[in-house]
Amino acid sequence: GQNIDQPTEMTATEGAIVQINCTYQTSGFNGLFWYQQHAGEAPTFLSYNVLDGLEEKGRFSSFLSRSKGYSYLLLKELQMKDSASYLCAPRGSYIPTFGRGTSLIVHP
Amino acid sequence: KAGVTQTPRYLIKTRGQQVTLSCSPISGHRSVSWYQQTPGQGLQFLFEYFSETQRNKGNFPGRFSGRQFSNSRSEMNVSTLELGDSALYLCASSPDSSNTEAFFGQGTRLTVV
User: Fold this and answer.
1) Residue B38: which of A98, A46, A105 has the closest Cα?
2) Which residues contact B113 (CB under 8 A, 6 or more apart)?
3) What is the pLDDT of residues B29-54, one digit of tens each?
4) Calpha distance B95→B25 (Å, rounded)
5) Which of A34, A107, B59, B95 to pair with A26, CA 20 to 30 A apart?
6) Each residue's pLDDT tens digit, B72-91
7) Of A41, A48, A99, which is closest to B42 when you measure between CB atoms?
């Protein structure tokens, strides 16, 4: 089975940096995804990590430690439009399993 | 290139009825996965189809079924609807079964009354 844990809600200030943590336990491991989902919209792909370390993509970076079953998503220079739910999704075999998501609220 | 298209966008059904939802993946994508999203449970995996074959199945009762056609379009069916089936049903497509990057449709919002 798979167990995913991430904070339910976080708040941050526009322009700041926020780190969203995710711990997981999976039967096997074949990469970890992060998705962003705005209210009422479909999830959109942010990042994919399969090896340990940090992957940087513009304002967003994602980190993975397979031995610790741990990942984080780092958002820099926060903008109001970053207010959304962030879903951590480790893949045990073929299919990613999604956590319940972290609702990020960015305020001025 | 058109994205993932799900129809209908909204649906209201009565308990005991059955419903069929449709998903057209991105052209050239052969893998289609279905998810149920509710506020309490988050995104839960239903099943995945690849080349008209069900490759993986989540932990849902047999009332939930699906199929994939030769053009990769997929349908999911829920029979004997229950109030708890009210949810957003999302379809995701990817080029192959490795599902490296899945593209989601806008979903079908099903309300069971």
Assistant:
1) A98
2) B12, B13, B14, B15, B83
3) 999 999 999 987 889 999 999 999 99
4) 9
5) B95
6) 999 999 999 999 999 999 99
7) A99
